[in-house]
C-alpha cells in the first residue's frame, strides 16, 4: 500500500479542515523534515553575509551570520524541550473529572435515563 493510499484510507472520519494536512503523516515527510530548517539556516547565513547589519552587536562582528546560528539553536532547544515539558505538564485523562458534554460512546448517563 503506497503512502498516498494510506493517507486516503486514513482520511475516513477526519475533520474536513484537517484533510489537506494529512500528507504530514507520511514517513517520507517525517524523515526528511530536518532539511527544511537546515536549508533555512544556510539561506539566512548567506543573506546575513551578503547584506550585513548596519549596527551589529559586538559579538556579531566576529561571527558572520551569528544571528542565524542563535536562531537555529533556539529552535532546536524548543524542539528538544517538548518531551520534558510534556512529561512535566501532562495530566491524566481523568484529572479534571467528569463534566462537559457527554460522549455517547463513553458516557454512562444514558444508563440512568430510564430510572427517572
Report a brief summary of the structure:
This protein has 116 residues and is mainly α. 51% of the residues lie in helices and 0% in strands.
Description:
The chain has 116 residues and is mostly helical. It has one domain (3-90). 51% of the residues lie in helices and 0% in strands. It is built from five helices and no strands. Helix 3 runs antiparallel to helix 5. It is elongated, with a radius of gyration of 24 Å. The termini are far apart.
Percent helix range: 40-55%
Low-pLDDT stretches are: none
Cα-based radius of gyration, to the nearest Å = 24 Å
- In percent terms, what proportion of residues is strand? under 5%
- What distance separates the N and C termini? 52 Å
Helix-strand pattern = HHHHH
Q: Please tally the β strands and state the result.
A: 0
Describe the biggest sheet?
none
Q: What characteristic shape results from the CA principal axes? A: elongated
Question: Count of helical segments?
Answer: 5
Helix-strand makeup class: mainly alpha
Number of domains: 1
Q: What's the overall average pLDDT, rounded? A: 77
Keywords:
mainly alpha, 116 residues
Question: What is the topology?
Answer:
Blueprint: H1 3-10, H2 27-32, H3 35-50, H4 58-62, H5 66-89
Amino acid at each position: 500500500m503506497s503512502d498516498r493510499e494510506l493517507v486516503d484510507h486514513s482520511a475516513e472520519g477526519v475533520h474536513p479542515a484537517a484533510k489537506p494536512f494529512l500528507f504530514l503523516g507520511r514517513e517520507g515527510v517525517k524523515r526528511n523534515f530536518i532539511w527544511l530548517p537546515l536549508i533555512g539556516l544556510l539561506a539566512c547565513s548567506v543573506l546575513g553575509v551578503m547584506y550585513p547589519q548596519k549596527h551589529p552587536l559586538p559579538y556579531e562582528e566576529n561571527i558572520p551570520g551569528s544571528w542565524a546560528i542563535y536562531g537555529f539553536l533556539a529552535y532546536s532547544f524548543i524542539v528538544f524541550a517538548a518531551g520534558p515539558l510534556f512529561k512535566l505538564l501532562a495530566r491524566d485523562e481523568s484529572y479534571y473529572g467528569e463534566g462537559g458534554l457527554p460522549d455517547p460512546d463513553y458516557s454512562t448517563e444514558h444508563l440512568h435515563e430510564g430510572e427517572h
